Amino acid sequence: MSGPERAAGQFAYEGLDRVIHERARLGVLTSLIAHPKGLAFGDLRRMCQLTDGNLSRHLQVLTEAGFVEVSKSFEQNRPQTFCRITAEGRARYLDYLSVLEQVVRDAAAAVTADAAAPGLAGLAPA
Amino acid sequence: MSGPERAAGQFAYEGLDRVIHERARLGVLTSLIAHPKGLAFGDLRRMCQLTDGNLSRHLQVLTEAGFVEVSKSFEQNRPQTFCRITAEGRARYLDYLSVLEQVVRDAAAAVTADAAAPGLAGLAPA
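Above: the input entities. Below: the structure tokens describing the complete assembly.
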């Protein structure tokens, strides 16, 4: 079952949308999924350990994709940037998550099978 | 518990090694983890739905990182390129996998909490 006869494209993981998959953006979106009320720019930057410039750049990609909306307001007379995931972003993130779960399942199954059958691994050519 | 008071860097996911995280290489390494005896270049290309050039480029990154070894041999008088994950590659992939599982857990917890507490989500500013 684990031989090369397996289906073409089984490990292609096309559903790993590159807009979401990039490490920093994955962190940003996961933060925003975990905070559906939204997050201030500074809190998001801190949680994701990004620089101002990096977070701004990734937010631009995410807003252009329609996954995140950024609003500006004033709080105690100071300008405040506030970020929220959109309904579209949430739906796309959930699609992405289901593929990520498949990667984890494929990997966990492989690791378990490998550990359970050391004799099989021993058949490998030198 | 889900407010901005959460720890700095909680969503940084620094353990998502970029060498492994890139979508095509994640597919290549997952294929090779699932086939510890190794895979012929053509089988790997088919499973990951990559072009010859793309697979070659990603294999170069992975061999330079020491995660994969590529050997050339002859089979029925035809040159054969064979790819295997190294012990180092396997260890690093398992480290990566544990972070990926954390992302899935964080996201699943957030999605579940959000669905279970629509009243909380309703507190979000307009």
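Note for the figure: Chain B has a mean pLDDT of 87.
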